């Protein structure tokens, strides 16, 4: 009897969740295989270069998700800026389960992960800042203020996720989303 196939989306989401909870160093290949719904041999078959290749696949998936669910929405001129902002904040809330989930970029930037994935993580954060900075111009913010707000938003989200997780209280994350809204809508 042939084993049940795991589709690519399910596979990557399972791997993503393991890295979110365990980090790069803490995630064993057995845990990654289990999270992906595969046997360890099947995981190696899909990712012959091992854990680093798995991490890169998860980062690529995350990058694609951000592009589709945040950046394209920010650029969608068929909607008013306020509507786009609301959609993006909603998607950010969903991505982090309203502040109950850890960011995979943070998880992969711990210990050896930063050495391996540092440039990719930096690039993702720069992309976030650039897209939100460009978006702020649509609210009449000058370039310097818009860039500062974009950075503050990213720092706020990342920081509030850490504190919300540590305190088992997602209210700080939700407050941060509200603060970001106020940065743009005055």
Helix content: over 70%
Count, helices: 9
The CATH topology annotation of the domain at 58-184 reads as Tetracycline Repressor, domain 2
Mean pLDDT: 94
CATH class of the domain at 58-184: Mainly Alpha
Radius of gyration over C-alpha positions, nearest whole angstrom: 18 Å
Query: Which word captures the global form?
Result: elongated
Which percent band covers the strand fraction? under 5%
Give the second-level CATH assignment, the architecture of the domain at 58-184. Answer: Orthogonal Bundle
Q: How far apart are the first and last residues' alpha carbons, in Å? A: 62 Å
Number of strands: 0
Major β-sheet annotation: none
Any descriptors?
elongated; Tetracycline Repressor, domain 2; mainly alpha; 186 residues; 9 helices; single chain
Short summary of the structure?
Residues 5-65 form the HTH tetR-type domain. With 186 residues, the protein is mainly α.
Describe this structure as you would to a colleague.
The structure is a single chain. With 186 residues, the protein is an all-alpha fold. The protein has a domain at 58-184: Tetracycline Repressor, domain 2, CATH 1.10.357. Helix content is 77%, strand content 0%. It has 9 helices and no strands. It has helices spanning 8-26, 29-36, 40-46, 51-75, 81-95, 104-108, 112-137, 143-167, 171-184. The chain is elongated, with a radius of gyration of 18 Å. The chain starts with 7 loop residues before the first helix and ends with a helix. The model has no long low-confidence stretch (mean pLDDT 94).
């Amino acid at each position: 009897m042939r084993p049940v196939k795991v589709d690519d989306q399910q596979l990557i989401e399972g791997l993503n969740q393991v890295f979110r909870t365990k980090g790069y160093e803490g995630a064993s290949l057995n845990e990654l295989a289990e999270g992906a719904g595969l046997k360890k041999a099947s995981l190696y078959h899909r990712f012959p270069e091992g854990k680093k290749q798995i991490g890169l696949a998860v980062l690529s998936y995350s990058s694609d998700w951000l592009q589709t669910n945040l950046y394209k929405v920010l650029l969608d001129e068929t909607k008013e800026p306020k509507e786009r902002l609301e959609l993006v904040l909603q998607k950010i809330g969903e991505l982090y389960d309203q502040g109950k989930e850890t960011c995979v970029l943070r998880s992969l930037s711990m210990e050896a992960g930063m050495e391996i994935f540092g440039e990719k993580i930096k690039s993702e954060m720069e992309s976030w800042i650039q897209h939100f900075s460009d978006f702020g111009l649509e609210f009449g913010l000058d370039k310097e203020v818009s860039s500062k707000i974009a950075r503050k938003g990213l720092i706020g989200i990342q920081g509030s996720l850490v504190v919300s997780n540590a305190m088992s209280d997602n209210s700080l994350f939700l407050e941060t989303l509200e603060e970001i809204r106020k940065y743009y809508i005055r």
